[in-house]
Amino acid sequence: MEPGDYWAAHAARFQQTELQRDIPVQRFQRLGAHNAHVSNAYSHGGRWYTRVNQHRYVYNQLAMGMRALYVDVWDHGCFYSKDEPNDPYGNAQAPGLCFSHAVEPFSTPINGILGEISTWLREPQNQNEVLLIGIEDLEVNSADSRTRMVNLLRHFFDKSYPNVPGDTRGSLIFTPRDLRTYFSNPWAMGSGSQAPGEYHPQRWPTNEELARMGKRVIISVKDRFDYSSLPDGNGGSLKDWVFSESSGHHEGGSAEPDLWVNAPGYPANEAQKFTGYPSCRSQDLPGALGLYWTEFSELRICDQTLHCGLPYSGFSHYLDYWAATRCGFSISMDQVESNLSYSPYGVSMDAMKEALWSFGEDEPNDGDDNEDCAEFQSDTGQWNDVDCASSLRRACQKVGATCDASYCPSDYWKLSTGAYEWAPQYNFCPDGYAFIPPQNGYENQKLQELVDGGDNVWVNFSDRLLEGKWQYEGFQWWADGEPNNYDGVEHCAEWKGLYGYNDAPCATNKAYACLRIATGSSSGNPWFITDATGPWNRPQCPAGYEFVPPRNASMGYQLQELSYLSGKNAWVNLTDQFEAGRWEEVPFQPWGTGEPNNAGGAENCTLANVTGTWNDAPCDTAVKHACRCTSQGCVLNDWKLSATAGAWSASVCGDGWTFSAPRNSIENTALQQKQQGAIVWVNLTDQTKEGRWVHWGGAPVPFTQWAATEPNNYNGNEHCAMILANGTWYDANCAESHPHACRKYGTSCTATACPSDYWAMGGTGSFDNFQCPSGYGAGVPKTAVENAALLTKTNGQNAWLKLTDRGHEADWTTWD
């Protein structure tokens, strides 16, 4: 068997690529390879590494599930005088570049290993994978060598490789500039708070967002400021291409903690400094560590023949994988091996097993060809696939809460009261909880501590929509036996009367299910099914409506009623044509006639015309950008154009504004009114996959604490949020009269508590008539701790929160 075919490799992929695809990358629990290049797989001319950390090629380490590679680059003492002959940047005068290790007579050329990584990234099955490459560059001494190193990374990690020699666009690399352009948090903090500085807070993207952007490689060096004076050929510096390890600052380097991608950093992250579970800390630091690029590294040395005993074991420091995994920490491993029976010299190489917290050994196995849903086994804490028709209680996660070793609510997990079949379209969880699976080892361990010794329970992970495609399922109401992709051509979803979704060929002409856009108080069924018909990708919703799918059971019941009573089946905005078995909504895109057409094969970015229609255009066209107001003082649906024109990727919107795209016809009209006869860029592109139009980045998603069946937009007129006496949130008619929740300016909460005067209750009135005491402004809790603090002030009353989805159904924002 190939290294990527063993159970351990599959389990590693499940718990990283699938279970954590919606986790921000700084909280992502990675499996990594320490000194990935120091392997006995590499030899040349009778030379090899004498002390090896690995025994597989880097390509195989990736196939076995490693999603972080830690390597050392040198520009002196290399076995080769320069890079391999096909190096487009090699020359006789430049010092050689290689991957090497201290006091070794051997090194590996940088091109070979970068080629392995690039090959793995380009393979079709790996297009959703995101890779962290940590480079120790302390032995790269010259500016010329640093320039060549980063240019080689940009060459190998570009979509054009290997077809365009010398190309250094680096299109696969997610850069600090990308982070600050597409994921910055531009919200002003309000009167009396500290003004935003050059490096204001931001959110990190999720793996899913990076994959859709095509930015699947994150690179760190010891200190990015070592590259600040080196031009990148694009008007910037090579510093713009790399992040820093946290240790760079501790050693007198980078003062940009928002651009660190490794914590707690060397030497605090050494194996011997890790204190174990449940303390989950480093001996060098006080208190349990949270999840912010948190990683521990081991040292497991063997000789070239994989003899790992004395003298090598004498200076090895093995990491307790079981404990580190249950702390939720990323780990970088030596001697990575997915074949758990592999044991040279009688020394077992099965340590990777302890880092796998999801499926148990040899699971999922689809026993009897009908095991498609995951149960959590209370005795082991690992998972097994079983028949979805089994009756089990559900593992329910507290909505909006975060859980890690630094702070985790004691009630983070609860179980449903009754036992049910798996069906995720029904929410049987308690108020304030949702059917969400564990997404790292710490969450999984906390669930085991709740159910230990009891019955097994459901976790929301299945491959029932496509065999072998395991995924978390949100609300999806499929008819029995659907989706079945009949004849291999059914990739778009329709709603069929009483039955729910059915997959059908996307080119078939059908009516469209359109949801009313909230603009104020309204009543009645919010759905409308058109008389006009057409293919799935050309929705014809009337003004004031948008093409979206039902997002909860209440919305599903309303569409079910309309479809049944009208006798019409209708397209809904769900498709799996871009990733088989994964049904997703596509964004609003009012293309003009014959658009998008990708004229000349080079039109991958979106222009909004003065008529309100859109067309695709070359991304380097110089026009202004559409900027949406996203600060806390914004008027709903406020737009402006950027002050300067530039390429699509060169957006400069300014603090309080975000490069964006309208999400429905009302927003599109609002932007059109600000265009003043100019065409503008909108944030929609298919640069990553032709025909798959996606947004890049956006403003942060707010914390929420919805009750189990909320928000449900009851009667189609509930678009403002309020907190109830039990601490859960409901959507309500914005015209109702309630007190307002008001937050004190210039104050903040810790991870466990808020100041006693953090919240105050304002006057009573409609949602839009905020009345707050002096020094306070309308607010919404940003964490579970803030939510609990607000609850102590409500005195049993319902209270308005500054949260509404009047701009776009189910897209809850804090805009006024």
Characterization of the model:
With 816 residues, the protein is an alpha+beta fold. Helices cover 14% and strands 18% of the residues. The strands form 7 sheets. Strands 1, 4, 5, 6, 7, 8, 9, 10 and 11 form a 9-stranded mixed sheet that branches. Strand 18 (492-496) and strand 19 form a beta hairpin. The longest helix has 14 residues, at 143-156. It is globular. The model is unreliable at 81-95, 185-201 and 248-254 (pLDDT under 50).
> How many runs of DSSP E, i.e. beta strands?
35
Gross geometry: globular
Question: How much helix is in the residues?
Answer: 10-25%
Structural class determined from secondary elements: alpha+beta
Give the biggest beta sheet. 9 strands, mixed
Outline the low-pLDDT stretches: 81-95, 185-201, 248-254
- What Rg, in angstroms, do the CA atoms define? 27 Å
**Number of DSSP helical runs:** 12
Task: Determine the strand fraction and express it as a percent band.
Answer: 15-25%
Distance between the termini: 58 Å
Mean pLDDT: 87
